[in-house]
Amino acid sequence: MEGGDTFSVHGNGNQVDNKAFHTFQKSFVQVQSILNQNRLLINEINQNHETMIPDNLGRNVGLIRELNNNIRRVVDLYADLSLSFTGPMEASSGGDSGGKLGHKRVRHVNES
């Protein structure tokens, strides 16, 4: 964004400043890095599982813990990012969340 310090958000003409854009970009770079690390962890876990060597299977316990922690970090990054963008937009639009914005995940159950 070399020409100015703001850009339009599609649809409603709201302006998001350059700082917010860089925060957004930084978060996605962090998420991508973690996801790349997870891909490597999953590959190593699969290789260890295929060997069926007790030491390798034992190592998988720690690798799976690391994978779970990384997934938690990604969820937290997305939640923080979401809150950082919805909070200012709700305030500017007069929306009232009642202070109940949180890190709640909704599970959808497929009905057969």
TrEMBL record:
UniProt keyword 4Fe-4S present: no
Biased composition (Basic residues): 101-112
Coiled coil: none
Subcellular localization(s) per the UniProt record: Nucleus
Protein origin, superkingdom: Eukaryota
Alphabetized UniProt keyword annotations: Biological rhythms, Nucleus
GO biological process: entrainment of circadian clock; positive regulation of circadian rhythm; rhythmic process
Stretches the record annotates as Disordered: 89-112
Location of the Protein EARLY FLOWERING domain: 15-96
Cellular component per GO, a single term: nucleus
Family: Belongs to the EARLY FLOWERING 4 family.
Protein name: Protein EARLY FLOWERING 4 domain-containing protein
